[in-house]
Amino acid sequence: MMETLYTVSTWILPALLAITLHEAAHGFAAWRLGDDTARLAGRLSLNPLRHIDPMGTVVLPAMLLLVKAPFLFGWAKPVPVDMRNLPSPRRDMALVAAAGPGINLAQAFIAMLLFHLLPLFGDTADLWIARNLNNAININIILCIFNLIPVPPLDGGRVAVGLLPLALARPLARLERYGMVLLLILLLAVPLVASQFGIDWNPLFELITPIIVGLRDILLVLSGHGG
After folding, report:
1. 176 is catalytic
2. Range of 164's domain?
């Protein structure tokens, strides 16, 4: 029991920071570009309670963590954005969408830099802080890359809709109502069915894992931990 509580204590802070700043970044970007819908709804706040979806942010990730799943998955409440308030709706929506993964990338890099300060703490605190920082790096890199998958309603899908020619952007945008179902099938259903045949296969994570590892290696070098 104590070991479980200790493990949870090293995940909860980096997870809340990653999710809260991700969502607040969307709202902040929209506000700076001319839409104050998120600001008026209180979504520029750093209070996690304003962004948490009980099932997607708490229950599902906690269950995956407790059963020692090989990945964590979840979601927060979407930030409201009114495209009609944006000067250049397609371009600006792409910028708003990119702000979330961008802040996750920044958090991962900052966590790596903070590893240089660990010698300032005692051995016990040093281990707990190191695990928090390591989890912050992993969570934020995974959130960054996963959200950049070019399938709406993920941020990458909305970036793609904003950048692609209209002939390609319109059919991609129409996928938004089915996008999350498709992702859940690839992320949860396909691995479950494959496991019934004795096959360890998660196509989505096989696709993004090399990118996650490569990005982590780049950030390690940039932060002074590799060469």
Report:
1. no
2. 2-222
